[in-house]
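Protocol step 4 of 6: structure prediction from sequence.
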Amino acid sequence: MNMIHTRMWMRLLLTGIFVSLTSPSLSAQPSSVTVTLSGLRSQKGNVMVCLWKQQDKDFPICSDRASFQHVTVNPTAKVVTVKFENVPSGDYAISAFHDENKNGKIDRGFMGMPKEGIGFSNMTQEQGRPSFERAKFTLDGEKTISLSFMYL
């Protein structure tokens, strides 16, 4: 009788190991990042939002070439929400700019300062140009990030 119970437990254990090894883990499932952008001074132009996976020479200049994912939307209100889908777990950063004249780039004024609105994850006004390290956050499940545009 004892041998029957041992075989049964061994089968259950092996089945459990097989299932755990062949099933995708919950943490490996793609997530989404929702970004709420506020502080738009107008509803003119476009808003480009970029999701970055790593430091890049172009960071934080939002573009379709350098970022991991990007979204361009036409703002219809002073608050804009975008969502990045199917994002694997890891470290990311967000950058955004309000392209008011739709020329596809950040216009600059005196001393190279941006004339259009900019925003970054983990942004504070006194920090200056952010690095990926300062702007990064860890994604391990659904995440909502709030950014407020800054106009210099």
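Step 5 (inspection) to follow. Helices lie at 2-22, 132-135.
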